[in-house]
Amino acid sequence: MQTADLLPLVLVLAAVAYGSAYMRSRAVAAPLGGIRNLKALPAYYAARAALWCAIPALIILGAWAAFEGKVIQNIVMASLPAELTPQSAGHASLTLSQISNLAAGKLNPAMVPDGISSAAVLLQELREQSSRFKSLLVVLIAVLGGTFAWTRVAPTINARKSVERTLQRLFFVCAAVAILTTIGIVFSVIFETVRFFGKVPMSEFLFGTNWSPQTALRADQVGSEGAFGVIPLFTGTLMISAIAMLIAVPVGLLSAVYLSEYASPRMRSVVKPLLEMLAGVPTVVYGFFAALTVAPFIRDLALMLGLEASSQSALAAGLVMGIMIIPFVSSLSDDVINAVPRSLRDGSLALGATQSETMKNVIFPAALPGIMGGILLAASRAIGETMIVVMAAGLAANLTANPLDSVTTVTVQIVTLLTGDQEFDSAKTLAAFALGMMLFIVTLLLNVIALKVVRKYREQYD
Amino acid sequence: MTKPGSHAEREGSQAELIRRSLKRRYRKERRFRLYGITAISIALFSLVILFTDIISKGYTGFIKTTVTLEVNLDGELMYLNDAADPEQIAMADFQAPIIKAMQEYFPEATSRADMRELSRMTGSYASNQVRDLLKENPDWLGTTRTIEFPAHDTVSVYVKHAGDAGYSIRLSEQQQRWTDELLRKGVIDTGFNDVFFTNGDSREPSNAGILGALIGSLLTMGITLVIAFPVGVAAAIYLEEFAPSNRLTDFIEVNINNLAAVPSIIFGLLGLAVFIGLFGMPRSVPVVGGLVLALMTLPTIIISSRAAIKSVPPSIREAAEGIGASKMQVVLHHVLPLAMPGMLTGSIIGMAQALGETAPLLLIGMVAFIVEIPDGFFSSATVLPVQIFIWAGSAEQGFVELASAGIMVLLAFLITMNAFAIWLRKRLERRW
Amino acid sequence: MSISMSPAETTIEEGKTVGIPFSDDPKFHLRNVEVFYGESPAIKNISLDIARNEVIAFIGPSGCGKSTFLRCLNRMNDSIESCQIKGSLLLDGQDIYDPKRDVVELRARVGMVFQKPNPFPKSIYDNVAYGPRIHGLANRKSDLDDVVENSLRKAGLWNEVKDRLDAMATGMSGGQQQRLCIARAIAVSPEVVLMDEPCSALDPIATARIEELIAELSESYTIVIVTHSMQQAARVSNRTAYFHLGHLVEVNDTSKVFTMPEHELTESYITGRFG
Fold first, then answer.
1. What pTM, to 2 d.p., does this model score?
2. Nearest CB partner across the interface for C104, out of B4, B14, B22
3. CB neighbour burial string for B219-231, b if at least 16 within 10 angstroms, e if fewer
4. Does B264 touch chain A (CB under 8 A)?
5. How confident is the model at residue C7 (pLDDT cuts 50, 70, 90)?
6. Average pLDDT over residues C146-174
7. Domain B211-429: CATH architecture, name and number where available
8. Cα A259 to the chain's mean position, in Å?
């Protein structure tokens, strides 16, 4: 049985456990003079049985499903005769897909070596065995758990407490998923990054000014080495982000100020949702807009002015990214400005200050730390934004300060290196993870600082 | 006060001073207001431009160009005498009757070059269409049938976009003449592009549809919802109601806040390394996509659910505790139902974000070219935004309008979801 | 507030105020003032004169409209969208709510001190200098220094802060902060100072200092003070006005209000039967 079928089966078993424990608790209570003589309501005995039935079984099922593919793969690969044992990771993945295609019947067995076809048979066999064992084990554990809890329906046992304790633990596990995710992220980038630095020295990566990761297929080809200097990616990312911030910060900030200070409630109720709409547009849509409308427009405009512009310019990507970030800046600024106590505003207005004077001299300075925090968060967003730059910024790693040139960014390179045909273990693939690690560290730092600043600011007025 | 005696006098001069400064100050005030209005105008103008651009580019995506021909399914012409024989079907020439049918209108087109141009009036899947029809109805062999073919991409572009600077016409002059003629005769026609809603992706714009991506999105979102919503709500309950204030709790909170701001592409790396690399899950499948998006959406759901729990008045908690309910009973019986609309609102907004997300899915292989409509959580699939990305980057001109049309479909979904969330929030506000 | 013991049978006649509400030489000439928040009335037909250089105290149970009425005098209610004001409010014979009237100029003439001290998060010096700066009252740095020093002296704060003018104002004690707010208000040399329960957030010692200060300031300013404390009203004011549920029930010389109130409600209030 497959995981997808076992899951509902376990749930059905849990329901059965619930029902039978419920009935048993009523039966136990009846001679004692009703359910009030139980330590807990029948529903709690029932819930306890259901939990006992489902949780261990689901844990086993999850663990099995997570690792069975990998384990079977390893056994099959180990079974290959020596002459067929793959030499490189790329070859290994090729062999593996050959074997699984064969097992799925998509490939004619006559077209592959004997070793491969017997491996395919082994694969099929192992899969069936694993599936059988898994089903058996999961059902067994579910039934055992349910039965155990069923036998322990007794008036002296407070099932409510144990159910509540279990639920609370479950809730904790859910909250801990956040930690697991972070660990997962760190884990996913760190190993590959270390391996990458085994192939390419860190100094070359961090300070190199040439980025051309396209390693040639044959070692004797020209440029087979590939260059992994991250500086051009860095400058490209910074340039596009800077253009974006240049648009988003003044526009977002001034919009927020106008909306919170001057706009009538009617205007606010119209403009705010429209700005939020700008925030809800998926990035791929902005990417489309940047690549197919803004970039050609900028190129034509530059040509009209006698300037040379690439069809994929940093300016186009930056402009559109700026538009995307406007609502982000404005809503954060709005929060921060509204957090400034009303009494300060009143104090200033009562002295005869105009609204703009109050804004510039009192509210803005008071809100500045919070606004800075918001700007940092926006910057982290700009640096990590992917789709707009993938679609509109280009792939050429130019080290340039001209916004009309095409540049590339860290995120573009991650996507480029990891989509399409990959060779596992090549410096090219590993480089993507090193870039990911860099991106993660930079955005994490920005976020931590920003959140700290914002929190400190909030505490000031709480 | 330097000279108390001249109080009134000094006051007079001061009022004068203030009056004199007023003009300058109000000028500044007006300028400041103007900056604000300009900023808002820029933002709204961008929104308008964005939407008009997409609609003007994309509405033609909902129109298809068809060529309707009287095709004589002549066995001799196709080298086919038994349509029930799969081997013959595999070898037959289904293009010939189509060309023949076109020649009815243009008998002068007999040279090899002309015939090639004729064959490029209908889409390149036209012959497959004839083959499939014959396979299904072997008795049609030898009869004449009216068949509607999708027009070739170049013809479609010419019909829909002649004179539009954004498109280049790639038809020969002769083909243009033919097209004009056939348009006049009603052989070439335009209509609602039903193919767009019933097909998966294709190499040919006239044959490509969004259904595959739509189903892929639904499957992926299904996984995301099933994981992210319960886990997010449970985590929020734990953090708001049960978590002791200790370092672990602080650490969880820091993690959640940071994850909310981690670039989405990093989650793609996580999916690639952990779900595909470590657990050996297949690439390009909705399960992995859904898992990745669930992890990505989780912080949003947790944060909004916590806000919803916080907004439940303490009096309700106290009332329940006062009659001896346990903490868990208070939470499950009273707090959770009252906070549910708020939690749902946050979750819908989180799901809308996930629905529009592209970058992490590129890394886990959901960017593959997939023709079949996915039929399960483990079958290869792509999703709406990725499909838009693929089309936006395709060479054929016809894909641009499909990408725009796809964007409109995506935005329609997002607007519906957000409108629903807003409605829910409005209802919630009415409650207390 | 508990008005359960209030004499329910006592009717308040709208627009009828006992005592001496009018004066020959009024600074403020207020007639038939009504204030609405949306539909609900907060002030019901009040007529009152406030004399030049007097200290008048507004007392009454909370929610009686005394603060709302005070905020009408320098149009601090403008920023509340739903707030509507009717009637005639004149300052030195000029309509306060004339649409052509400049609110900035008005507020420079009618300063205000709030319930909670609200110093700007700036230095002590900058707080006091803020008003003169925005109004362009000082041309030179030395002029500004003089204004700051004079204002702080008048607020009785100079000796405490003269060595740390650059320190953040938010670091001062509550009483000091409130005196700083008074200094800030008088730095623009207003003609009237409105005080909205200026001591409600302060301890008794700080309160005593502010009360002394009010007595000193009364020589050169018209002061309108809203207070919760009848003792305070008795100590600082020349006249006292008693508000009840949006009505102005009684205005009279302070000593008279507290010894021989004319209205039954005033008597109930000052004898502590409710409030």
1. 0.86
2. B22
3. bbbebbbebbbeb
4. yes
5. very low
6. 91
7. Orthogonal Bundle (1.10)
8. 33
Please, what are the averages of pLDDT over each run of 10 residues along chain A (462 residues)? 77 90 85 78 87 90 83 82 72 76 74 79 86 90 89 82 90 92 91 88 86 62 67 92 96 94 89 90 95 91 86 91 95 89 91 91 89 92 93 83 87 87 70 92 91 78 62
Listed by start position, the domains of chain B span 63-192, 211-429
Q: How confident is the model at residue C209 (pLDDT cuts 50, 70, 90)?
A: confident
How would you list the strands of the sheet with C18-19, edge to edge? C18-19, C247-253, C239-244, C55-59, C222-226, C192-196, C110-113
* Mean pLDDT estimate for chain A: 86
Segments of A36-183 assigned E as strands: none
Q: Are C225 and C237 in contact, with CB atoms under 8 Å apart?
A: yes
Find the helix or strand (DSSP H, E) in which A277 lies. Answer: helix A265-280
The whole-chain average pLDDT of chain C stands at 87
Cross-chain residue pair B242–A419, CB shorter than 8 Å: no
The predicted-structure confidence for B325-373, as pLDDT tens digits, reads as follows 888 888 988 899 888 888 998 899 999 999 999 999 999 988 888 888 8
Contact C214, C236 (CB under 8 A): yes
**CA B119, CA C124: separation in Å to the nearest integer?**
87
Q: Tell me whether residue C62 is exposed, middle or buried, using C-beta atoms within 10 angstroms of its C-beta: 0 to 12, 13 to 18, 19 or more.
A: exposed
**For chain A, which chains pass the contact test of at least 3 CB pairs under 8 Å?**
B, C
Query: Tell me, what's the ipTM?
Result: 0.89
User: Quick one: how far is CA C141 from the chain centroid?
Assistant: 31
Tell me the C-alpha distance between A10 and B21, whole Å. Answer: 80
Contact: C220, B1; criterion CB under 8 Å: yes
Runs of H (alpha helix) within B67-125: 75-78, 86-91, 95-103, 112-119
For B367, phi and psi rounded to 5 degrees?
A: -100, 5
* CATH architecture for the domain at C18-270: 3-Layer(aba) Sandwich (3.40)
Min Cα separation A362/chain C (Å) = 7
CA distance C104 to C94: 15
Burial status of residue C228 (CB atoms within 10 A of its CB: 0-12, 13-18, 19 or more): middle
Average the pLDDT over C144-154 and give the result: 92
Q: Which helix (H) or strand (E) holds B344?
A: helix B336-356
Give CA B317 to chain center in angstroms: 42
Contacts of B98 (CB under 8 A, 6+ apart): B69, B71, B119, B122, B126, B127, B130, B149
Domain boundaries, chain C: 18-270
d(CA C170, CA C177): 7
Domain A227-461 has CATH 1.10.3720.10: yes
